[in-house]
């Protein structure tokens, strides 16, 4: 396997990301994790950098008849990324896309509120924001997350992820000011192949990471 050494778990991957961010002198104001898988990494990065941790939430918009294939994604604030190629492949019309966009935006808002509890969303205007996930494949949800952060007025956006395929990483460079990725293997098949422990993160665990009680 190219880049053969696997991460022990998400926390180790987050610790390694933090080292790389510090090496690059990233002066972060806040870390935003993409739940649920991004939260163990986000906690490690935020603790290492000494900044607050919060979430940025987006939901995939699935294709008609094939909901696992993303024809887009929408963040909790309504920011949208649309996969025009995928929309064309599946022949989904604007009415379908808009209906699913509204449905998934509401789901994203509900999810964000569940994780934050009584806390207000963070103010991002003018800030250096580090967006963390446990890896990307097509990157559909993180693209919508980045649109959200940009629309909130962030001054500088850094994407920090342990692993992703080269083409997706290149595309993310167009949406963020800086991309930090530890592995970009050409043999990429799935994020989980680069972790020894890739157990699903529960909502309870995610909320604990967000609160700092991991």
TrEMBL record:
Q: Which UniProt keywords apply?
A: Glutamine amidotransferase, Glycosyltransferase, Transferase
A molecular function (GO) held by this record is: glycosyltransferase activity
Q: Outline the extent of the Phosphoribosyltransferase domain.
A: 27-196
Query: Metal-binding among the record's keywords?
Result: no
| Keyword Transferase tagged | yes
Q: Which InterPro entries match?
A: PRTase-like (IPR029057), PRTase_dom (IPR000836)
Protein name (record)? Phosphoribosyltransferase
- The organism is Haloferax profundi
Query: Top-down, what is the taxonomic lineage of the species of origin?
Result: Archaea, Methanobacteriati, Methanobacteriota, Stenosarchaea group, Halobacteria
């Amino acid at each position: 396997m190219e880049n053969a050494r696997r991460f022990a778990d998400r926390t180790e991957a987050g610790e390694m990301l933090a080292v790389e961010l510090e090496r690059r002198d990233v002066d972060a104001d806040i870390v935003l994790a993409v739940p649920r898988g991004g939260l163990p990494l986000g906690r490690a990065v935020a603790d290492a950098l000494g900044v607050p941790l919060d979430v940025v939430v987006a939901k995939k918009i699935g294709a008609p008849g094939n909901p696992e294939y993303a024809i887009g994604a929408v963040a909790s604030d309504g920011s949208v990324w649309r996969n025009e190629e995928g929309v064309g492949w599946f022949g989904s019309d604007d009415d379908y896309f808009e209906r699913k966009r509204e449905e998934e935006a509401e789901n994203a808002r509900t999810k964000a509120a569940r994780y934050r509890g009584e806390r207000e969303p963070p103010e991002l205007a003018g800030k250096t924001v580090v967006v963390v996930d446990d890896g990307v494949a097509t990157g559909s949800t993180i693209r919508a997350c980045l649109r959200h952060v940009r629309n909130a007025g962030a001054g500088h956006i850094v994407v920090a992820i342990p692993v992703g395929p080269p083409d997706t990483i290149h595309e993310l460079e167009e949406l963020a000011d800086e991309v930090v990725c530890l592995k970009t293997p050409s043999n990429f098949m799935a994020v989980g192949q680069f972790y020894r422990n890739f157990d699903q993160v529960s909502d309870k665990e995610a909320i604990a990471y967000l609160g700092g009680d991991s």
